[in-house]
Structure formats: C-alpha cells, structure tokens
Please model this.
Amino acid sequence: HLHRGLADRAIDHLVKVGRSQGVEIAAEHVEVGSRGPGIHVTVWSRWERGFASGSAMGARGIRVETLAQQAYEELFWTMRTSATVDPFLADHLVIPMAMSGKGGVFTVPQITPRLLAIVWTVKQFTPSRLLVRGHEGGPGTVELPPS
Model:
C-alpha cells in the first residue's frame, strides 16, 4: 500500500552501503498482502561459517534509508562475530536439532531469553540433552551431544 519509490530508495541505500564496504548486494522488492500500509526491510546472507539476517520495520516518520541501514548493521553485527547463526534463527533450530537425535552444535552472537525459553520447553517434553553454554545477553553455544 506504499509507493514503489520507497522500496527503490531502500534498495539503492543497501547497494550503496554494501559497495562502500566492498560487499556485493543483490536486492529485490517483494510486495506482500497486508491490512494497511507499511514497510519492512530484511537482509540476509549465507557465508562460509553460517547464515544470518537483519531486519527493520518501518514507522511513520522514519526514513526508509534509516530502516535499510538498521537492517544492514544488524546483519553485519552477527557476521563480525564467530557465530554460525543469528539470534533469531537460533530459536528455529532448537526443535529440529532436538528431534533429529543426531546431535549438533551452533553458535550465536547473543543468547536471547526466547532461545533459553525454547531450550527449556524442549527439555520438558523430550529426553533431549540440550546444553546452552554462555549467559543471556552474551555470545554462546547450543549443543546437543549425539545419542
């Protein structure tokens, strides 16, 4: 429900910021159905160590270039660490890892309360031996020893 030019401005900003840091960015505008107007910027990357994303949601009075910059900085905050996934993807990996029974490990740049809650919940309903190393708010590792 917004003018196409807003998406073009966000893409132009992402490409410009990436170019200034030697990063090639491929971007596209995807329009999704909604009840009202709004914009959301999501950037993601898969690299040799892992997968991460960054996002920002628009609000009245916030320039779309600011949203693009926030999403870009969130992505590169994760990529500058030794983490293999961003804090939000980590939430989604716990259940499949626990259900596989094969074991696994991933690192995150920040242990979130949500990640801890999901690990706790999975442990209540499965014989999983999930282990979180690190402290809430700091970097950490989620590990499942092989069965």
Q: What stands out?
A: The CA atoms of residues 97 and 104 lie 7 Å apart. The helical segments are 4-20, 64-79, 87-100, 113-125. The chain is about 40% helix and 20% strand.
